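Q: Joint fold for the lines below.
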Amino acid sequence: MRQFVSLLIVFCCAVSVQAQSDSVFAIELVVTASVQATQYEEIPTAQSIDKRFTGSAFLGRLIWRPNHLLGVGLQSGYITFSNEELSIPGNTNIPTVNVVLTAIPIHMVLSMNPGDFDFGVGIGGYVLQSRWRLDEAPRVNSSDVEYGIHSWIGYEFTIADQFTMGPELSLHVLSNRGIASLAAGVRIRYNVASY
Amino acid sequence: MRHLTLVVVALIVAGCVSQLDPVQLPIIDYSSELANTTPLDGSRRIIMSGVYAVEDGKGRLGDTVAVRFDGLRFTIYAARNVTFVAGAGGARGDSAVFISTWRAVTGPDAGRLDLVVPASEGGKDLVDGKGNGKGLILRGVLQLGSGRENIRLRKLGQIKARLRKFQIIAHRGGGRNSERLGRSENSIPMMMIASALGATAIEIDVHMTKEHIPIVFHDPTFTARTVPSPYVIGAVENYTLLQMRLAARLVNGESIPTLREALKAVIDSTTLSMVWLDNKAPQVVDSVIIIQQEMLAYAASKGNDIRILFGIPDDEIFQRYSRSPLRGTVPVLCELDVQKVREVDAEVWAPRFTAGTQEELVKEMQNEGREVYVWTLDDDDFIIRFIKADIFDGILTNYPTLLAALFYTRQVQP
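A: Joint structure:
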């Protein structure tokens, strides 16, 4: 964790470092699609058989890259942390319950783009949503906001004039809720505007 | 941009702060360690109980402590560091021995405390049931990790009997999660240890499930502070009881009790004399009253004269109660102004401590046959100020141990 903090502090210090003098201001859109492995700190229910789950994540980031090495922007998307069927002991009327935990991150992001690499961090809230489907019983949707951090590292191959594409590895941590989720996926970057 | 950098660094540092670690209490096998002792009977427990001067161990326990029994459970309450001791013991030969655990509620410190009343220092008289125990010496060793500290207590006198019963009312069923008592706030296991913490009564919070079943829970929403499961988030009333039973374990693993379950457990298994229902769900006012009626009847059938008070904390509950067809059928505690207390004919008025001691109003209420409890006092100086006023019938606190220590040590009967 200390190394992670040190890395982020280095990011922040890079704010004042000037990039090449002939660089331009740009606005970029980055979209990612990932599969992810989520680990809860504790088994989420007494009926759950594991605290590790697989899910998916679709994220979009809009980044303003000024005449500095560090870009700033906003990120949102949709993440499925876990999806499981719970059996109800001793209840034959409702044999199973489907429970899904999803999140919509609303993050401020900081991103650095040295060479073909891109790495960064997103800080802000996750709008968590818990959805329960009970056979022949009312659905439940309930939501809450938790603070969390997202960090990523990606590599880019230029595939067209304004497009790059490549792999991305990222980590979501919602420490207050005991959720950590590692995602591996594909990213596409589009240079929306330069001025 | 520098401000942004500072904000980011602050957020990262805040995110790295670890949560409070659980307190490790020693595990004691009382049955084997007390195999050769005979529990003290009621009269010997009275001889043993009282206010004690701390001769060795002032740094840990302060100048005076109160020693009491909750049934057979041996307890000590000290104001210094809000320290409580709970254990068991009895006569062994011409001495009395007590083994116990101690915990300073304001921090993580906890350990074992072994005490003895030597035969020559009051033990023989205690075992023989003679005298009033004045001058009796309790001595022993307090352990904290690998450290040991000698403790020596000398009995100053009995705890003075009062004409009016004074209620030490523990908030959230006995204590909050932040005190790391090993039991979750508003859980049944917490209610079971409330009297060992010094409480004579408890306040519990009443919310409701999606199907309008009254449950005991403090917050309007589920958060990691109370329920760690990631599936249980947002408003409490979004979830059915079935869902709560499936996924909503409290921070120490207990299930969220229904109001009926909680009251039945208190009646069946504690010596508490009053339960204050802090109603937070106006939709279930009638259901709460019906459960209250049932449980009062159940207690009466068991010869238990416990009081269960329907709490009116705000105008919404006041309006619902006032319009209820069941109004006037159960005892009521009202936190609002005295006019509203009279309107609902509440048995108890519960003003907030920030209004001061309000001595004239308190006496006015008492002259009308009502009791007055003040809430919520956690600070030594404020507690002492309200105890010294000597007009209140009870105080609600998050630290029943502190209130018990401050109250009982001021009631010494030489």
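Q: Anything notable?
A: Chain A touches chain B through 48 residues (CB under 8 Å). The longest helix of chain A spans residues 2-13.
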